[in-house]
Amino acid sequence: MGKYSHSKLSTFEQCKLKYKFRYVDKIKPEIEKTIEAYLGEIVHETLEWLYKKVLEKDIPSLDNTIVFFSERWQGKFVPEILIVRKELTEKDYFSKGVQFILDYYLRHYPFNDNTLELEKKINLKLGEDEEHEISGFIDRLAFNEKTEEFEIHDYKTSSTIPSREKIESDRQLALYSIAVKEIFGKEKKVCLIWHYLSFDQRICSRKTQEQLEELKKEIISIINKIEYEKEFPYTKSKLCDWCEYKPICPAWA
Q1: Mean pLDDT over residues 141-149, rounded?
Q2: Is 193 within 8 Å of 152 (Cβ atoms)?
């Protein structure tokens, strides 16, 4: 059985050589992460901690939440983290993270949106013989009692908001919605919610069953391409500057 994730599929589409380095050759890169990835990691950990306290009916104060973020940032930061945008410093990204937490807390307090689970692992089997497995983690799963919808929440720390067209074509949360329907019932309604923290905005989307069936076919098609790929050529793009394998990539030799 082939095991995949949204990240694994996206890496193959972005650059086949990067896919080979990471998933086939399993090369550990010299640069393990960029500052943007680190920012996203610490923000996610902070919001996960916040909602764990909420589920324990012990809502932390805003000050304590920012202290958690600050201590987490300082405790895990290492000088090797790559900062591509030389006009910005580590302190600039730290300040961004504080602002994200501040805005999110003030907008969503007292967090009474019926959160069910955090970092919920999902496993989805695809193919006629269920020979392919897709796994992933839902940042936060909630149930909206007013709309009777399950809500899949995802936090984004990127500095841009994608177009509506790109949002609607996003595979990750749509895949998760298939798994949620398999757990709770295919007739259940699911709302996909992205929190774009740089803009203090949330964007929602819903998928029909027909769209989800088409998505399954699309995923299987990508997996087939991966499993038949022999050459793994590189693809140069503006994303190369943020690639942890750039120092060993022949495109930049």
Answers
A1: 97
A2: yes
